[in-house]
Design brief:
Layout lengths: L19 E5 L2 H13 L4 E3 L6 H8 L3 E5 L2 H13 L6 E5 L17 E4 L5 H32 L4 H11 L4 H8 L3 H15 L9 H13 L9
Parallel strand pairs: 1-2, 1-3, 3-4, 4-5
Helix pairs in contact: 4-8, 5-7, 6-7
Amino acid sequence: MIDGPDAADLPHLAPPNAPLLICSLTTSFIHELSTLAKERRQPVIACPDLSQFTATLAEHQPGCVLMEGSDEFVNRALRLFELMDHCDATLFVCTHHQTISLNLPEGLQAPIAVVGPPNDLAELLTMVHSAIAIHGLKRLARTHLARYAKAVSRLSDAQRDVLNDVCAGKPNKSIASRQQVSLRTVEQRRRRVFDVLGVASAGPLGYEVGFAAALRLLEKVAPGEHPC
């Protein structure tokens, strides 16, 4: 069944469920940021041991990964992250220097932001929090569009033609005229479309248009920025 989102699906209406994964060897950094995140009800997972990094990514599916440490440590973490091709988390690299030498893997597709020395952890966490919320929205949009595409694949070519015309707001008579079929045939195909997509009217068919537009917008947002 293809239906619209409810409040529980929208991460901006409640604290995001996707955790923040902190990859760092600095105990004080992990402790201070974790304490601040707890006050904001942001789930946090610490991973100071890179030998557990990929397993932690696979188990918890974080919305954001914050890497903090030396160039060597961060580049090792990036190479490990690349191996997790199903992980769609946003990456933040926190450096204590003015510059950092990153060897970005060629296959790395995740959005990444490099931030300066963590003088203001509250500001850093705000950026991360925003990135996790956007990550949740993108995941919601992709999930809905994938379900919709799977349902549409069950329709015949003729039924898809009817679906396209219905989404364009065309009445049954206009559809019948354009497709050169009877009005009864259009009504039958329309009923089949609604049954397969799990809707009772044409209204919910506009959801995928909105999700696609929202996803295009969110994909353009740089880590830590707001979409509006």
